[in-house]
Amino acid sequence: MNVHGWGLQDAQFNMAQGDAAYFESPAHDEALSRLIFIIEQQRRCGVLFGPPGAGKSMLLAQLVRIVRRSQRELAVVDAHGRSESELLWELCGELGVSPAYTDSPFIMWRRLLDHLLASRGFEFPAVLVIDHADQGGEDCASLIPRLMHLTRQNQGITIIFAMRARHLSELPPDIRESTDIRVELGWLDRRQSGRFVRSLYDSVGDAAPQFEDAAVDKLHVLSQGSPRLLGQLCELSLLASISDDKGSVTTDMVELAADDLQFGSFEHRMNF
Fold first, then answer.
1. Model confidence over 11-64: pLDDT tens digits?
2. What is this structure's pTM?
3. Which residue among 55, 128, 202, 219 is least packed, with the fewest CB closer than 10 Å?
4. SS3 for 84?
5. Same domain for 84 and 196
6. DSSP characters over 168-185
7. Residue 22: CB partners within 8 Å, gap ≥ 6?
8. Same domain, yes or no, for 139 and 52?
9. Measuring CA to CA, which residue among 109, 198, 101, 96 is closest to residue 146?
């Protein structure tokens, strides 16, 4: 199978790795615009939430690319599975604070605090982006309120949290009330799923097999409109088509891809 000839190494199919190209659905564009607004206006905090696989990390990656082109200081961390010490270490590293290996969480917090509060304001705004904010270790639970309190102490610090929708209600009331904006992402409808699939295989090349309409219908039903699962199914379906030297991707190939991914329990796959 000549994968290289199809340009698949450069195609943005692998949603599981979080490196997929940004898909400009109306909902994603609206969410991105609202997050950019609170950063530009130097508001304190925004929360991006939605079900697993809705494209939160994909949207944050696009937001980060935009912020990097500005004059703002930026720290981007993923809280998934991190302890408080690990998360503080990564925040410090992103901001160039360079903590020592022997630093305690208290020392790292003081370094972070001193850095963020120094010369902060309209001329030196900072943006902290924390993905999977609800999936850190147990000792991370107190870090979000502390970071939120930090934004109240000094203007020019904006924090963007991303989390699963079901955990939004678990935030302390004072934290929920302190957020300037809450942005919700859902799954794609059938029309948006079709656009999503086209945007992905267009990146492969004009000679790549095309997805039949019925195959796109099947992709949408199996994934329920989750960009992450759509990307995984598309990748395997396209590879199956290329392997069989077919000119199009059929529903049979999509079903085979679903079997390979063990799509029997959608809820199980979406709850990690």
1. 444 444 444 456 677 888 899 999 999 999 989 889 999 988 888 998 999 999
2. 0.79
3. 202
4. helix
5. no
6. GGGS-HHHHHH-SEEEE-
7. 28, 58, 59, 61, 62
8. yes
9. 109
